[in-house]
Fold each of these.
Amino acid sequence: MVSRVIPVESFDLVIFGATGDLAKRKIFPGLFRRFLAGQMPKKSQVVGAARSSLSQKTFNDLVENSIKSFTEINFRDNDLKNFLLCLNYIQIDANGSKGWNELKTALRPKIIRAFYFSVSPSLFGSLAERLHKHEITTENSRIVLEKPFGRNLKTSKQLNAILAEHFTEEQIYRIDHYLGKETVQNLMAIRFGNMLFEPLWNAQYVDHIQITVSETVGVGGRGEYYDHSGAMRDMVQNHLMQLLCLIAMEPPARFEPDSVRDEKLKVIRALDPVAPHHIVRGQYGSGVDHPDYRTGVNNKNSKTESFVALKVNISNYRWAGVPFYLRTGKRLKARKSEIAVIFKEKPHSIFGPEAGNHQNALIIRLQPDEGITMDVTIKEPGPGGMRLIDVPLDMTFSETLGIEENAVPDAYERLIMDVIRGNQTLFMRGDEVEAAWAWTDPIINGWVDRNDVPKPYDSGSSGPQDSLTLLEREGRKWREIP
Ligand code: BG6
C-alpha cells in the first residue's frame, strides 16, 4: 500500500505549554514524523512557548529527547538536526506581558499561524485575550484546544463565549484525538463507502449496538485531574460520544466539516435522558503491581468512577427502540476498543428450532489489531443434518493492506496537519460540545444528588458484575473483553 503525502503550506506553529507532557509525548514526535514524511515543509517554524526560562539549546535538547523517546520509527541523525532548525523557544507569561512582543516579532507575515493551547483550560481565556491584545492573530490564524472543554454545560458555554470574543468558530479547532484515529475515520468509510451496510443500518435490522473502550492502564500520575473528572467526563462525554455519533448519524451530504458536524449534532440532540437503573459505575481494586483507585488518586473517600456502562436510546426515526450499550473503564482485562453491531434474528428459520439462534454481527475493531469481522452463519461441515454454526469473516487491516508497523500517522499527526490545511471535519464544533454536556449533566448531577457510590471491581476483570446484568436482564450479553 502506498500512502499519499500531500505537503501542507509552510506555517508558524506556536505551542503554548511546550515543555508539558502532551507536547513531549505527542506534538513534537508527531510533527517530526510529518517532517520525515515530507508533509511539513522545511520552511515552517515551530515556536515553543512556556513559562520556564530556557536557552534555545536546552529547549532543542528537550525536543530531541522527546523525539528519541516517543518516535517509534528509525530515522537519520541528519533529519533530526534539520527538524531542530525549525524550532524557536520563547519564554512567555500567559497571565502577564512577558514574551508577547518577542512572539509577535518572531512570527512571519502572510503565513498560516496556528496556536496550540496545550495548557490548563484555565489559561485558554488569557491566551486568547493576549493574542488579540498584542495583535498577533491574523485572518490566517487558528487556535487548537485540548479537552476538557468545561466540566458541564455552564462552564463549556462560558469557555466558548470567551473564545468567541476573539476568534470565529472557523478559527477554533477543538481536538478529540479519537477523531484522528485511522480506524475511527474508517467508520465513515465502512458505512458510507459501501452499499452493503447502509440499508441494514436501522431499527428494522439492528438488534443493538455495543461500544467498548477498555483500558488496562490506571489513572497513573493524573490522579488529581481524573478524580475530579471520572470516566463519564474523561471518556464518555467526548470519545465514546463521538463514536456513537459516527455510528448513528445520517449520511452527510458531503464529507465536509459542517455537513458531518451537523449530522453528529442531530444524534446528540436525539439522545434520551438515561434512567439511573441503566447506568453502572465502578471503581477498580488493587492489583499485583498497583494500588486500588482510591489510593492511586490519594482520596480514600473518592466516589469518582473509573468504569461506567450505560444503556442509551436515540429517539429518532432510524434508531427508535435500538439500545446502544456503552462501556469504558480503566484497569480492565485487556486494551480493546471496538464497536459491535448485532443484527436481529431472522423472522423465520427454515431449518427449524433445532438449528438454534444465530445473529449476524459486524465488529469494527478500533484498537489494537484494527480491522473488521463479520459473523456469518454457515452449515457445519460433514454429515449429521443441517447444523448451523457462526464463523467470522475476518479482516485485519495491517495484513490485508500490507501496512508496515507504525506506518499510519498517529491521531495527533493527522489532526495537526488538518489544522494547517484548515480542515475542521475531524474537530468538534462548539454546539456539539455543549449538546454533549447538556446530555451528560443530568447523569452526573443525579449521582451527586443520590450520593451514588461506584461499585468496586477487580483489576483485570471486565468491570462490576452489575454491568453484565445491565444486558443480561434484557436477554443480551456483552462481547468478551479478551
Ligand atoms: C484520554 C483520556 O483522552 O484518552 C485518558 O483522558 C485515556 O484517560 C485516553 O486513557 C485513551 O486514549 P487512547 O488513544 O489510548 O485510547
Note: The chain has 14 helices and 15 strands.
Amino acid sequence: MTKSRRTFLNEAAQIAGALGLGRFAWNRFENQLNAESQTPPTHSINSVSTPTMVSTWNHGILANQAGLEAQSQGGNALDMIEAAARLVESDAEGLSVGIGGLPDRDGHVTLDACIMDHTGNAGSVCFVQGVEHPLSLARRVMEDTPHVMLSGAGAEQFARELDFPQINLLTPKAQKAWEKWRIESDYAPVINRENHDTIGLLALDHEGRLAGGCTTSGVAYKMHGRVGDSPIIGAGLFVDGRYGGATATGLGEAVMRTVGSFLVVELMRQGLSPQLACEEAVHRIMNSMPTEDLQVGYLAMDRDGAIGGHAIHSGFNYAHTIGDEAALIDATHG
Ligand code: ASP
C-alpha cells in the first residue's frame, strides 16, 4: 500500500529528529518536496478563442469596441485593454476616469490605474496628476521597470521621462461640480448607482490570452492622497490566465478590506463560475460591514470567456462584447 504524503512526512520528520537534523535543514527538505510535488504553473492558453471583452458601466460599450478594434489590427489582450482604457480616459465628459474626473476635496484630480496579463505580470500607478493615460503608464511600469507600482511624484517623473504628455485634468465641468460641493463640503462617499464610474476591463484575445485593467479618478472629493482599490493588484483587479480575471467598481475601501478581485479569481480557481464567484465576493462584504450606503460591483471572466457580474445594490451594469456583438447587461444584486 502506498503511504500517504502526510504519513511519509511524519515518519521522515521523526527520522530527521533521530539523526539530529536541525529545524532549518528539515524545513529546506520539506520545502523542496512541496515544490516538486506541485503542478508546475503552465499559464497555458487556449489555441483559438473569439476575442471577448467585458467592461464596467455604459462607457464599456465604446471601450470594448476600441479594444476589439485594436485586436483586429493585430493587438493582443494587453493592447485591447490599453486601447479601451485610453478611449475612456480621454473622454472629458466622464466624471470618473482620466481627464474630466472629479477632483479630491482640495481640487486636485488624482488618478489610479493598473494592468495585468495572463502570466501574472502587473503594473500600477496611483495618486498621479497631470497624466492623461495612467493605464498606459501602468503598462510601462510593468514592461519597463522591475517594479509593480509607482506612486505620486515618482510616477509623474516616470511619465515625464517617457515623454507622456502633461495635461490639466480638471475640466471646467468638473471644477464647477467641485465648487458647488465646496459650499457644503459634506464628505460622504455616495454610492455609485449612476451609470458611469471607474472602468474595469477584462479581455480575452484570439489566442486565449487574458488581460485586465482598471482606471479611475477615484471617489469624488476624497482626501488628498487617498488611493482606492483600483490600482491595487488583488483588490481592483486580478488576473490569473489559468482560471480567469476579475475587476471591481464601487467604494474602494470595502474592496480593499476584502481583497475582492483576488477573492473572485480564487473562487473561480476552486471551481465556482464567474457569476457565483462574484456573488460570493459581494456577500463577503455584505457579511462583514454595513452596506446600506455603499455600492460595490464585481465583474469576472474565466479563461474560456464565460462572464459574471454582481453588485450589492441595483444599478451596476456592464458591457459584454464578443466579436461583433455587444450587449449592456444589468448586473444581479443583493
Ligand atoms: N473604486 C473606485 C475607488 O474607490 C471608485 C469607483 O469605482 O467608483 O477609488
Note: The longest strand covers residues 111-117.
